[in-house]
Amino acid sequence: MNRWIKNLKAKRSLLVVLFAIVITVVFALTQYNTKEKYKAYVSARFGPDMPRFVELLERADRLYAEILEKGSMNGRQSYLLSDIHHDLADIIRTYRDLAVFLRLRDDSFRYNQSSPNAMIIMRYFNDPDIESPINLDQRTRNHIAVFREFDSGWLAAVGRDIESFRINDASWLRFLEAVETSTITFLAERQMDSLNDLWQDRKSTQ
Asked: What is the C-alpha separation between 88 and 95, in angstroms, rounded?
C-alpha cells in the first residue's frame, strides 16, 4: 500500500514537472511568435523611413541652395526646413528607442547628439513671422551654410542608395551609428558643443 502511494505521488510529481515544462515551452513559443510578428510589423511600418531620411536631406539641400544663391528666404522655405529637421530628429529618436526596446542596444543608446542638433536647426527656421522674402545678412547666410554642411555630412555618411530595412538586418543600426559619428566629427572639427552655439548667436543679435 505504501509503495502504491509512493508511486502515485511520484507519478503526480512527474506530471506536474511535465505540465510545467509544457507551459514553459508554449509560453516561450508564444513570446517568440509575438516578437516575430512585432518585428514584421515594425519593419513594414518604419522600414521606409530610411530612404525617407535621405530624401529629406536631399530636399533640405535644394532649399539651402536656393536660399544661399538668392541671398533671401521666404516663409515657405523657412517652414519646410523647420519641418524637415523635425522629421529627421523624430526618425533618429524613434529608431534609437526601438533598438533599446528590442534589447539590441543598452539604455545609453537613447542619448545622442544628432537628434538634438536637428531640433536646433528646426527651431532656427521656425519663424512664423516670415511671409514675403527677406534679405539675409552675412551672419545668417553663414549660419545656413554651416547647417547645410552639417546635413551634407549625414548624407555622405549614410549614402544615397538606401533601401527599406528589416529588423533582423543590422544595417539600420549601422545607419544610426554613421549619422552619430558624422555629428560628433562635425562638432569636434569646429570646436562646438552643439549647433546651438550658432542659434544662440543669432538670437543675441536680433
From this structure: 11
